[in-house]
TrEMBL record:
SMART domains reported for this sequence: GAF, HATPase_c, HisKA, PAC, PAS, REC
Full protein name: Sensory/regulatory protein RpfC
Record-listed 4-aspartylphosphate modification sites: 987
Source organism per UniProt: Pedobacter cryophilus
Keyword entries, A-Z: ATP-binding, Cell membrane, Kinase, Membrane, Nucleotide-binding, Phosphoprotein, Transferase, Transmembrane, Transmembrane helix, Two-component regulatory system
Domain of life: Bacteria
Main subcellular localisation: membrane
Domain HPt residues, every copy: 1089-1181
Entry's localization field: Cell membrane
Topology in membrane: Multi-pass membrane protein
Subunit structure: At low DSF concentrations, interacts with RpfF.
One of the record's GO molecular function terms: phosphorelay sensor kinase activity
Flavoprotein is among the record's keywords: no
Length: 1186
């Protein structure tokens, strides 16, 4: 079955008619009777359908009052607007199974019209039913339609009639005024409420214009409202006043609806007189409150629950330095200091919880001054139920200050009395009651609840003090004499105390009524006085019996006290000098000495540790003296004290010591010169032994030859180490060794220490670890040479005493690594033989090892640890040891060093490590360049062996080099001027002219300013390197040296020779080369070795591409320093592999001094395009090789 789309509206309309379940009504019964007669059926019904049933308002021919809605034929009828007719229900698909069809009442025929009201709601039907099939004729259908229209009219009229009854009852019974009036100003109809409220009867009101009853002040307003209503404009409401029969007026609020067609006004009026009277009273009250609020001298306000001001009185706002309108834009949090915000939050929470709050609040004036308020606030609600707070406060700032001052004064008095141990007491002689203050009780050692009597109070006094106090009290009472005594008491704890008691009598009418005073603990004062007396006695005894000559004078230089030694030294035994002027005792005192005494009396101190006193007729006398003022208790000078001591014997002894010292220094100088000469003389032949054996070991030798020469080389190096240890030990013992502290790369020095012993480690098959914390600073301020010497010594010992396992150099920070000065710990750990605990202290002694067997097995001088420890001593540190036999040892020391972080360490080629590599990319390129260069090298050396060694090593490293030889400095200057070499190796100690002078003369030449000069010296003494650099040399190499040392220096200084060498090569070869990529130059580097050429060029391609990526990133990050570094690296790669254009662009990056976007973008574009070009050229060259 279908459902109407407006079903809910239909059901609601049906209920509004209030007809369901009502009693039968004859008007509806007539209709059903007439319908049954006209249509000739047994049953006729008026049905109304709600949500679950059809209910019969009227029925003919059936006794039931309702049926379920789902069985109702009428449910279909209301779906349309026309007649629904079912001729035979047993044959209709909709109804043939309906229980009303298949069983009683056996319905066969049905015809019905829907009952539709004016709003289109189908409320029900009027229908006819029969038990036999049939069909209505047209006349019957028309009649049934008319009956349906009449039925719906009855339903509507029934509701209207009911509503009229309700309205009429309301019209008569309501207290509101209800009327119909005309726009002409006359009432047409009024309800009884007019008479009840106004006192006028209906007949009178219908005769007069209602404007005559309107208050004169409201007539114009009322006319305007009527004009609007006449035009159909409805006002929500308006108020006017109507006159009552007794002459008073009532406030009436009108709601009026006009009927424009008739000119009638339908109005309802409500009496608002009482509300208006209340409103007036409220307005008056509010006005008074507002006047009180605004004129109050305190701070009055209202604020919301969050503390935002709603209103503030003028006086309150002014007291804080604001206008009221300013404060309504502020909150309590703006005027309460931040330090009191927590208290403010507690106040807001408390007043919301309790509804009231009282207390003290601190505020900050606009000018920054602080104010204190006593407040009493309550919570109220507005008409909408929103809570707000009414605040009333008075300014207690001044009162608070006075109270604080009073409290402070009271506390100060109490603290003063407490500090001074002063109590009070009072005796009422009329009541015989005694009062003791808390401090008085404390002095007596009794509890605070102790109640004294006169007898008990006197009993505390001890010995003669009892008689003294009794006598004093008696005189005070009888004669009015006050007293002030210092007496002894014995406290309740048995302690003897000195006290000061003051008593004052109070008389009235000649009779002592009261005795009062103070009681003070002066025990400490008495002790001080006794101590002072004792001190004076001791001082007197000290001065009298001092072993030195001491005298004390007043400001007139009269003697106050002297020591016996003074009397003896100055031969005054037979003279009485106390109270006598010093100038009388010694009448020949010079004016110079009198001036000295005068200065000391003004506060100066005069002393001389070695004063020569000439005495007539006797030997000269050396004195040590001091004259200083002494001060009285008020810090004024009370006089002077003179101390003298005869040091004649000490001076003589000192002169003897100075002579001995000169002899010792001469011996030390001779020793130092001997050591320096020995160092030079021993190192010179050792240079030849070590250098040439190193070179021969790199030639083709049979195993026996290699073994023998290795022994020679190792023995020579061992001898060198022993010589260095002995020389260092000698310098340390002589106090001649000084530290040279400078900025040092921590990572570099640690790596160098590891490199030095790596060969020994490899020979023994050990694992070598370098463990440096990643967050350590890059640079430290330290003597790099001596720190490396200590580390190498510790690492060397570790290698020597370890046969298997590992050796570790570990460096960690003991403090915050980001600080400018931190403690670093250096540790060397091994897995060697370890050291017995009882032998650990012995190994730090000079020339000592753990035991004799160790020396025999491992060798050594036993000086290494001693020297290391003494070097660390100069660095304010010392070696420490942790060791277990057969487990290994850990030597460590801590250094507090100034640091600088610098740029982080980066392994530029980490991703290129595919196999073992000896040199980095940049180093290998420099070596290849160097092999191809025709360098001119000047070797200046007077020792033929050392000269031959240097020549041989250089020729091995740079086969094409031209070596120029000079035997002394003078010849070196001449050859340099004539031949202009590219680099100079300069010996220091030579005949005719030494290396220092030769270097200075070369630097003075026009072509000698920028040529590297490397010092070669056998000296190993403090300051040698500095002297070489100061003379103008660029670097320093100590003899003996080996091939690797020379090679490292040539690589290091080769960059400075790049431009000159490359230019000379180009001119010499005189061939046209591609400026973008000189393939012939690279081929020459590798001597046309195809495999090496391919490997190097692939490495170059990877390197330049990596450089471009890094430079792009660094430019994006605006990192100028990193960009300079990348430019330098790219320059080295490009210049060393024949990419001249690229090297010039890279050099521009290297020397950029600021970042300017247009310039840097142009450079980046140029370098990008050039790298693309050389990449193409190199790849093309590599393809042709294949």
């Amino acid at each position: 079955m279908s459902i109407l789309s407006n079903e809910q509206d239909r059901l609601k309309a049906l209920l509004n008619y209030k007809i369901l379940d009502t009693l039968p009504e004859k008007e509806f019964d007539r209709l059903t009777t007439l319908a049954s007669a006209i249509c000739e059926t047994n049953v006729s019904l008026i049905c109304l359908l709600d949500d679950h049933r059809q209910w019969f308002k009227s029925k003919t021919g059936i006794d039931i009052s309702e049926t379920p809605k789902e069985l109702a034929f009428c449910s279909y009828t209301i779906l349309g607007n026309e007649l629904m007719e079912v001729e035979d229900a047993s044959k209709d698909e909709r109804f043939k199974y309906n229980p009303l069809v298949v069983s009683d009442p056996q319905i066969r025929f049905y015809a019905g019209y829907p009952l539709i009201d004016q709003l289109g709601n189908a409320l029900g039907t009027i229908c006819v039913i029969d038990t036999v099939p049939k069909k209505l004729n047209a006349h019957q259908k028309q009649a049934l339609k008319l009956l349906a229209d009449f039925a719906i009219e009855l339903i509507q009229e029934r509701r209207n009639s009911q509503e009229f009854k309700y309205f009429n009852k309301l019209f008569k019974l309501t207290n509101d005024l209800i009327c119909v009036a005309g726009t002409d100003g006359f009432f047409k109809k009024v309800n009884p409420a007019f008479n009840e409220l106004l006192g006028w009867d209906e007949s009178y009101l219908l005769k007069i214009s209602f404007l005559d009853l309107t208050h004169p002040d409201d007539v114009v307003k009322t006319k305007l409202e009527i004009d609007q209503l006449e035009k159909g404009i409805v006002a929500v409401s308006f108020i006017n006043r109507l006159r009552c029969n007794d002459g008073t007026y009532k406030y009436i609020q009108w709601a009026t609806a006009p009927e424009v067609s008739t000119g009638y006004l339908f109005s309802i009026g409500r009496d608002l007189t009482l509300e208006k009277q209340k409103e007036i009273l409220l307005t008056n009250s509010e006005h008074k409150l507002r006047s009180f609020f605004e004129n109050s001298q305190g701070f009055m306000c209202t604020h919301d629950v969050a503390g935002n001001f709603l209103t503030v009185n003028s006086s309150g706002a002014e007291s804080l330095g604001y206008l009221p309108e300013e404060m309504t834009k502020m909150s309590l949090f703006d005027v309460v200091p931040a330090s009191h915000h927590q208290e403010l939050e507690r106040y807001l929470a408390l007043i919301l919880e309790k509804g009231i709050a009282k207390g003290i609040m601190h505020t900050k004036n606009k000018n920054g001054s602080l104010m204190i308020w006593l407040f009493s606030n309550v919570v109220e609600e507005d008409a909408d139920g929103n809570k707000y707070i009414i605040g009333n406060s008075i300014d207690i700032t001044e009162r608070h200050r006075l109270e604080a001052d009073l409290k402070w004064t009271k506390e100060m008095m109490e603290h003063t009395n407490e500090a001074a141990r002063i109590g009070s007491w009072n005796i009422n002689l009329q009541s015989n009651k005694i009062y003791w203050s808390d401090m008085t009780k404390s002095i007596h050692g009794v509890s605070l609840d102790y109640v004294p009597t006169y007898e008990t109070a006197i009993s505390f006094f001890e010995g003669t003090s009892i008689d003294l106090i009794n006598c004093a009290v008696e005189k005070a009472i009888n004669k009015g004499i006050a007293y002030d005594l210092e007496l002894k008491i014995k406290t309740a704890n048995g302690e003897l105390l000195w006290v000061r008691t003051i008593g004052t009598p109070e008389f009235k009418d000649g009779v002592c009524k009261r005795l009062y005073g103070t009681f003070q603990d002066i025990n400490d004062k008495k002790k001080v006085e006794e101590a002072l007396l004792n001190q004076k006695s001791r001082l007197r005894a000290f001065v009298d019996h001092a072993p030195a000559a001491v005298a004390m004078f007043d400001t007139d230089m009269k003697y106050i006290a002297v020591s016996k030694r003074w009397i003896e030294d100055y031969h005054l035994k037979d003279k009485e000098i106390i109270g006598v002027s010093h100038f009388e005792v010694f009448p020949h005192i010079t004016d110079e000495w009198k001036a000295v005494f005068a200065r000391c009396l003004k506060g100066d101190i005069e002393k001389d540790d070695e004063y020569l006193r000439k005495v007539e007729g006797a030997d000269d006398q050396y004195l040590q003296f001091e004259i200083r003022p002494w001060y009285k208790f008020d810090a004024t000078v009370g006089g002077v004290m003179i101390f003298t001591q005869d040091i004649t014997e000490s001076i003589a002894h000192r002169e003897e010591l100075e002579k001995a010292k000169i002899l010792a220094e001469d011996a030390s100088i001779a020793k130092s010169e001997f050591l320096a000469n020995m160092s030079h003389e021993i190192r010179t032949p050792l240079n030849g032994v070590i250098g040439f054996t190193d070179l021969v070991l790199k030639t083709n030798l049979n195993s026996t030859q290699h073994q023998y020469l290795s022994i020679v080389n190792q023995s020579a190096n061992s001898l060198l180490l022993i010589i260095n240890d002995i020389l260092d030990f000698s310098k340390i013992e002589a106090g001649k060794l000084e530290l040279d502290v400078d900025k040092t790369d921590l990572y570099e020095i640690s790596s160098q220490a590891i490199d030095i012993i790596s060969y020994q480690v490899q020979n023994k098959g050990l694992e070598l670890l370098l463990n440096i914390s990643v967050n350590l600073p890059r640079f430290i301020w330290v003597d790099a040479v001596r720190l490396k010497q200590v580390l190498v010594n510790l690492l060397g010992n570790a290698v020597k005493f370890t046969d298997k396992g590992e050796i570790e150099l570990k460096i960690t920070a003991l403090d915050d690594p980001s600080a400018n000065e931190i403690n670093l710990r250096f540790e060397v750990r091994d897995t060697g033989i370890g050291i017995q605990e009882d032998k650990q202290s012995k190994i730090f002694e000079a020339f000592s090892q753990e035991d004799a067997s160790t020396t025999k097995k491992y060798g050594g001088t036993g000086l290494g640890l001693t020297i290391s420890n003494k070097l660390l001593g100069l660095m304010n540190s010392q070696l420490q040891l942790k060791s277990e036999p057969e487990q290994g040892s850990t030597f460590f020391f801590d250094l507090k060093l100034k640091t600088e972080h610098g740029l982080p360490m980066v392994w530029e080629n980490i991703n290129q490590i595919k196999k073992e590599a000896i040199l980095s990319e940049s180093e290998s390129i420099n070596i290849f360049k160097m092999l191809a260069q025709r360098l001119k090298v000047l070797v200046v050396e007077d020792n033929l062996v050392n000269k031959l060694l240097a020549k041989t090593i250089i020729q091995r490293i740079v086969p094409l080099a031209e070596i120029i030889e000079a035997n002394d400095g003078l010849e070196a200057v001449r050859l340099f001027s004539a031949l202009r070499p590219d680099i100079v190796f300069m010996d220091i100690q030579m005949p005719v002219m030494n290396g220092y002078e030769a270097t200075q003369k070369i630097r003075a030449l026009a072509n000698g300013k920028h040529i590297p000069i490397i010092a070669l010296t056998a000296a190993n003494i403090k300051g040698e390197k500095e002297k070489c650099l100061a003379a103008g040399m660029d670097d320093f190499l100590s003899k003996p040296f080996v091939e690797d040392d020379i090679a490292a220096l040539l690589v290091k200084w080769n960059n400075d020779l790049e431009d000159t060498t490359l230019i000379s090569m180009e001119n010499e070869n005189n061939v046209e080369v591609d400026p973008h990529f000189d393939a012939e130059m690279v081929k020459e580097f590798v001597d046309n070795d195809k495999e090496s050429l391919i490997e190097i060029l692939n490495l170059v391609l990877k390197s330049i591409q990596d450089s471009l990526t890094m430079m792009e990133q660094q430019l994006a990050n605006q990192d100028l320093a990193a960009l300079n570094a990348s430019g330098h690296k790219l320059f080295g790669t490009a210049a060393g592999t024949g990419m001249n254009v690229l090297s010039k662009i890279a050099r521009e990056f290297e020397y950029l001094d600021h970042l300017e976007i247009t310039q840097t973008n142009d450079l980046l574009e140029r370098v990008t395009e050039e790298i693309k070009l050389v990449t193409f050229l190199i790849n093309d060259f590599l393809q042709k090789l294949d």
